[in-house]
Design goal:
Number of helices: 10
Strand content: 15-25%
CATH topology of the largest domain: Alpha/beta knot
Number of strands: 9
Number of domains: 2
Distance between the termini: 42 Å
Order of helices and strands: EHHEEEHEHEHEHHEEHHH
Helix content: 40-55%
Shape: elongated
Amino acid sequence: MRYWIDIMTLFPDTVGDMMNESILGRAQDRGIIRVETHQIRDYTKNKQCQVDDYPYGGGRGCVMQAQPLYDCWRFIRKAHREPVHTVFLSPCGKTFTQADARRLASDYDKLILVCGHYEGVDQRFIDECVDEEISLGDFVLTGGEIPAMAVADAVCRLIPGVLPDPECFQEESHWDGLLEYPQYSRPEIWQGRQVPPVLLSGDHAKIARWRRKQSILRTRARRPDMYEKLRFQDTKQERKLLAEIEEEWEEIKHGSEI
């Protein structure tokens, strides 16, 4: 087994069904990755399978208790017989990026993803067991399952063998600081919109140049924060490409699609 992810959740069937479909499901069948879900309620010590209680200090809602989370986490740790990097999915965490996906895929071969619920998780569990907190963005969801599936998907697809070739993810958005260029498929004309002629030319050098230009233009238009961080090579070809981009930029600012 090359890569193993354990997900601690109150909804293991929902998470498990999603992680066992399509590309990730086939990768699990081939033994490249493994995604296991663990029902936190199985580690409670009362008949009601209670995992939450009222917060100290007052306030609305309930907080997930430390003990069931800890017992579930400890069971996973013992099963692996070694430390496992633990991530808590939290709106208070660092915003997840493609760089984080690459780091988690390369630096570890096992992860524990912890899904919170209700008004949060007892801080003592976080202090005791969690190595890092990750957020999908500046918004709040009802639970950590969607973020956990997103992180697991983003990480697992980078594991060698999950996708047929590294080019499947190396040319995508965010891999090298750019957004991906527009993609087209058959038919050649749809709703009066035609595929850019260069893509039909068969000239791979021209196609590669067009795609790079479109990636730069799209990044500049949609993610100026990313564009400001780009560093271009000081070559004749690159300077010519950037000059063409400057000429087209005025059209984009006046409403052209990119």
